[in-house]
Amino acid sequence: MQIPQIRLESTTGQIGIKTNQAVNNISQPMADLTIEQPKAELQINTTPSKLTIDQTEARADMDLKSIARRTEEFAQQGKSDLLEGIARRAQQGDQLMKIENPGNPIASLAKTNSQKEMKEFGLAFIPSYGSVKINYEPSKIEINVKPIKPNINVQVNKPTYDYQPGNVDISLQRRNELKIDFEMIDIKA
């Protein structure tokens, strides 16, 4: 007896995919930058130093006095000597008024008035210590600084983009097929 036999032979389809990558270029140009620093305002004020040396007393110690000072000293000395003389004469007058008291006031007064006063002798440093007066005022410095801020200018540059899109090519590499074959097969019973 004969039985039909069906043979199926299939081939799968095959797809081909080809991809071209996208190209993306980004560049960032540097910013344009300018900086300007103005000079600070500087002001310096100084007062000069002052040195004073007063040697009036040192010169007086060496007997180099001014006319005005000599006149004043002579006037003071004259007044002092006058007052001493008046006081001495008043005292001697009191002693003579009391002549009745024991002692010999006339002889003692004659002896006192006839003798000269003993001069004292001594060493003195000329000029005396501290007679030169020195005064010093240092100079004063006043500094004023006014800083000035810098001028900064920035120009930002935009980035540049270069984009080339990619693509995908899809193609059919092999078509799918189905072969159908009929054949009669003898089977023995």
TrEMBL record:
Pfam families: DUF6470. It comes from the Bacteria. This is DUF6470 family protein. It comes from Metabacillus halosaccharovorans. The lineage of its organism: Bacteria, Bacillati, Bacillota, Bacilli, Bacillales.
